[in-house]
Design brief:
By secondary structure, the chain is of the alpha/beta class. It is 27% helix and 28% strand. The radius of gyration is 25 Å and the shape is elongated.
């Protein structure tokens, strides 16, 4: 199953082996983090991740995914200094970076001997009966390679629940049952149809079934604290990203009460220190390198967080005529630049926003020029202002870069020209919702201690 499919699922279940060395009573609370590599830098440094993990009350960091030599180097650099237990991850290929799955078992086992903070490694999107190098006899050899070097390192293959019936591998007579019971096991389930809301009763049923079938092997539930499918949908407002607070709280509580831990993908770890975060380079104005435009908004390659934006904004007084509906019209010209990627169109959109309402938006193009005319009606009380923004918005967390050049902004109120002074600003949309989400996780994690 592709990560794109998983991201669109809204909720993901991760059932995994908890090392016996952690103790039977200790709940694993894992924060997932995408390894970027030193050349890209990534949107969050390991130092910031460490601060957030400690602040949240988590006890393990999962570094996902190792796809190139930069990521391998970053993993090794992190292991040299980290004070947090680490789980690493690779894909299912049998020749990634020139290594077979047996080579990876040897590599991680040797690395864990040198750096004991490496507690697990997992193989993502595993379909045991699809890949011949994961056939039962091959799987036994992979484990033998690992165990000869470090039997305490947990091998955690990632399977799915309701898409590929991953529970079948625990059924009596299945050739993988004894392998997974001995090796440790991760269980990553696409949670129902795309963009469907969370069904807490269904989640509770998954966990209850895992207790019945998987135990005595411990398991953890992995969930997305965001409704990822909502933001991938073209034109979908980012406010739809967020679960209802009580829904998120119960997802976490069910996972920790009914199982042996929880793993979270997509946590806004930057909320740990927003003052420091918003001083980062990606929130600073870019130098305008095109004299034909008035402003340049954008971000260099290296990544932005979901909801990141650069904008030019003006606050415009409205006529003091409370009994008459006022019409505000905006026109402007833009030129887009983005990296040439099949996925970039999902990551960045350009918008015109009036009083927090998106009145126009489109995907960022590759070197496109267009004139945009937007008309919107407002009906505001006497003495109020209209706030107008033109912005570049990061819809998803990614590693791509993009820019938006803006000129010829014209604002009219009831067909009369206004002369607003547009100025740069930046930030994260729905900051209060991100903070609410972070604090819910922090409260629940700390409730369960250790």
């Amino acid at each position: 199953m592709s990560m794109a499919r998983a991201l669109a699922s809204g909720l993901v279940l991760l059932l995994g082996f908890v090392p016996h060395g952690l103790g039977a009573q200790k709940k694993l609370k894992i924060i997932e983090y995408l390894v970027r590599g030193p050349s890209g830098g990534g949107p969050v440094s390991h130092e910031d991740m460490t601060k957030a993990v400690n602040d949240l009350g988590a006890n393990m960091l999962s570094l996902n995914m190792i796809k190139g030599p930069d990521q391998l180097q970053e993993l090794e650099n992190i292991l040299k200094t980290t004070t947090i237990d680490i789980r690493a991850a690779i894909g299912t290929g049998n020749n990634r970076l020139g290594k077979t799955q047996k080579d990876w078992a040897k590599y991680f086992a040797e690395l864990s001997r040198a750096y004991p903070r490496l507690k697990m490694y997992r193989v993502d999107d595993l379909i045991p009966d699809k890949h011949p190098w994961f056939a039962p006899d091959e799987m036994k050899e992979i484990l033998a390679v690992k165990n000869r070097i470090n039997p305490n390192l947990k091998f955690v293959p990632t399977l799915y629940y309701d898409v590929r019936n991953g529970m079948q591998f625990w059924e009596e007579g299945n050739p993988y049952k004894q392998i997974f019971e001995c090796a440790g096991f991760a269980y990553w389930a696409a949670y129902g149809p795309r963009k469907r809301d969370v069904d807490l009763a269904e989640l509770e049923g998954y966990i209850a079934r895992a207790r019945q079938i998987v135990h005595p092997t411990p398991f953890i539930s992995g969930i997305y604290p965001l409704r990822y499918g909502r933001c991938v949908k073209p034109g979908g407002p980012l406010r739809e990203l967020f679960h209802e607070p009580e829904t998120l709280r119960r997802m976490l509580e069910l996972s920790l009460e009914g199982g042996d831990g929880v793993s979270l993908w997509g946590m806004p770890v930057w909320m740990c220190d927003t003052n420091s975060h918003f001083r980062r380079a990606e929130y600073q104005p870019m130098q305008n390198d095109d004299a034909g435009f008035d402003f340049k908004l954008g971000i260099a390659r290296g990544g932005c967080h979901m909801g990141w934006y650069h904008a030019v904004t003006a606050k415009i007084p409205l006529p003091n005529e409370p009994d008459r509906r006022k019409t505000l019209a905006v026109s402007f010209s833009v030129r887009d630049n983005r990296e040439k990627s099949d996925y970039t169109y999902k990551y960045f959109i350009k918008q015109c926003v009036v009083n927090d309402e998106v009145v126009w938006e489109a995907n960022v193009q590759d070197d496109g020029t267009e004139t945009v005319r937007v008309a919107t009606s407002t009906d505001l009380p006497e003495g109020r202002f209209a706030t107008v923004s033109i912005r570049l918005l990061g819809r998803l967390r990614g590693n791509e870069g993009a820019s938006l050049y803006v000129k010829d902004i014209d604002v009219k109120i009831d067909d009369k020209p206004a002369a607003p002074d547009f100025a740069f600003n930046s930030g994260i949309v729905h900051l209060d919702k991100w903070m609410e989400m972070y604090n819910i996780v922090k409260t629940v994690f700390r409730k369960y201690g250790g």
